[in-house]
Amino acid sequence: MPPTNMNPNHNQSQATETRSSTANGDHHHHPNGHSITAQPLQRHHTYYPRSSSSSASFKGCCCCLFLLFSFLALLVLAIVLIIVLAVKPKKPQFDLQQVAVQYMGISTSTPSSFDGTATTVATTPTTASLSLTIRMLFTAVNPNKVGIKYGESRFTVMYRGIPLGKASVPGFYQEAHSTRNVEATIAVDRANLMQADAADLIRDASMYDRVQLRVLGDVGAKIRVLDFDSPGV
Q1: Which positions fall inside the Late embryogenesis abundant protein LEA-2 subgroup domain (predicted)?
Q2: Contact 171, 150 (CB under 8 A)
Q3: Which pLDDT tens digit goes with each residue over 81-114?
Q4: Rounded to an integer, what distance in angstroms lies between the CA atom of residue 108 and that of residue 212?
Q5: Is 174 within 8 Å of 159 (Cβ atoms)?
């Protein structure tokens, strides 16, 4: 049998034709009679997980800022405590120096009592309504090397255990080594007193120019250093 000559160019052209037909997705017939079906190309989508580097960096920045602010707050607190311990704060003096009655008025209540056997009506005054205006003068002394911040103070004025009225002194700031006068006024409107107590109060005010009043209240003060207030002194 004579040898069969194989043409390499012929095989290469067949392979090229096969690849082109596969790429086009058409049905072609092989020269030898075989049918070749081209399969469509399948595209595979690759999903990449979202990177968490930005989230981690944001959390790291937040942690750094928190630590920085915490350190600064502790540093300021330590400085304030050192200054407070260095100055050795003392309690300021807040004393009542003078009480003056600027106005006084009294009206008595005379309830009537009827006796069935008598023909007259007896009147026995038992209570009185007292109205007066009281002026109080306080003196605040700051012996410290730093300023003092006073809060709002409230006082109650009493006469023989009976509250007559209340007064308030607004808060203020006092410089170091200074003395300051503070005034407060109480307006008493028709406070009910016993007749005897009202008479004694008027007698003391008119004859002796002196009335025994009791003033109760609390005064809150704090040391102020670098715009920071310490606990109460």
Answers
A1: 141-219
A2: yes
A3: 777 667 677 888 889 898 888 887 777 765 544 4
A4: 21
A5: no
**Residues present in the chain in total:** 233
| Residue 79 backbone dihedrals phi, psi, to 5 degrees | -65, -45
Q: Which of 155, 126, 133 is nearest to 211 (CA)?
A: 133
Q: How would you label 78-117 residue by residue, b for 16+ Cβ within 10 Å and e otherwise? A: eebeebbeeeebeebebeeeebebeebebeeeeeeeeeee
Instruction: Check: CB of residue 207 under 8 Å from CB of residue 199.
Output: no
Global pTM value: 0.54
CA distance 224 to 92: 13
Highest CATH level, class, for 92-115+122-232: mainly beta
Q: Which of 231, 73, 221 is nearest to 147 (CA)?
A: 221
Tens digits of per-residue pLDDT, 195-206? 777 778 778 777
Q: How do the domains of the chain map onto residue ranges?
A: 8-37, 58-87, 92-115+122-232
What whole-number distance in Å separates Cα of residue 55 and Cα of residue 149? 46
- 141's enclosing H/E stretch is strand 127-142
Q: Write 84-91 long-range contacts (CB < 8 A, 24+).
A: 84/223, 84/225, 84/230, 87/144, 87/145, 87/146, 87/223, 87/225, 89/144, 89/146, 89/223, 89/230, 89/233, 90/143, 90/144, 90/233, 91/221, 91/233
